[in-house]
Amino acid sequence: MKTNTFRNNVRATIRAAIGLAALPVVVGLTMVQGFVVGPVFKNQTAIPNMIYKGLRKLLGYKVEFNKASAPVEKKKPTWFVANHISIADFAVLGGKVGGTFAGKGEILKWPGISQMARAVKYIGLRRSREFNDESRGKIITNFNDGHNTIMFPEGTTTTGERVGLFRAALPKILYGENGVDKKKNEVKLEKDVVVQPVAIKVKEVNGQDATNSDTLRDLYAMYDEDNALKRVWKRLQIKSTTIELTAFAPASPKDFDTAEDLMNHAAREIVTVVNPGQETFEKAAIPTANPKPVATPSA
Prior knowledge:
By secondary structure, this protein is α/β, with parallel strands linked by helices. The chain has helices at 2-41, 46-59, 89-93, 113-119, 132-144, 214-221, 228-237, 259-274, and strands at residues 61-65, 78-82, 100-104, 123-125, 149-151, 179-180, 186-187, 194-205, 208-209, 241-247, 280-281, 296-297. 38% of the residues lie in helices and 17% in strands. The relative contact order is 0.16. The model is unreliable at 289-299 (pLDDT under 50).
């Protein structure tokens, strides 16, 4: 046991040293992305994809698509929606599906991370109902500018045991709901967007099958670890983690009556991989809002 602990700490130390050494390079690349690649070449994914790939390698993450997975949509404007079990999901999905991440706005206040997030045009959302118009406006602008969007509709990370209710307030832009820009001017979606569900599942940890193991899945989720530095250190200790992605056929909003119907469809698709047999969905508690769980039928 002591030998394993020593080996894990050595691994984490080496990886941390590599990460610190690479940090100036990453900062430089984000500046190139923010000032050259993005505005000049209109490409928001080239350098971020390189960073995501490097981060996955540093953490020992191997990401593979399920053999039954549908092809990732590349021809139409796409809203990728996925379950959310770890902050590391950004590195897992980044580079595997092309798009701009939309998530909690707090990230734009984190030292170091905020600069990188802004460089890749990360869409910071304020997770309260009164700010929905602004959030919709940001996503609409991203689509109108020709970029895909990647979002976790549960609104926060969960333990991964169950898929949380997929919130539909923002996807209402696919049904004629407009948003507002920074000056409170109305913005309207100009693109014909499809929604592609993507399931994230922990397949193996250190070579062990994690399919039915909450303990192994938690080594990826780190759900109970509040200290950010400890969480990073624990991730660096783990030799390897295999994450399996399953993309489902893109769904057209025209085939569903409401945004709620569309999001329920996406959640039901994802749950067939993440938690087969789950029939109802409950709202995951947003840290700043703590809404009461509401059960809703899956059919």
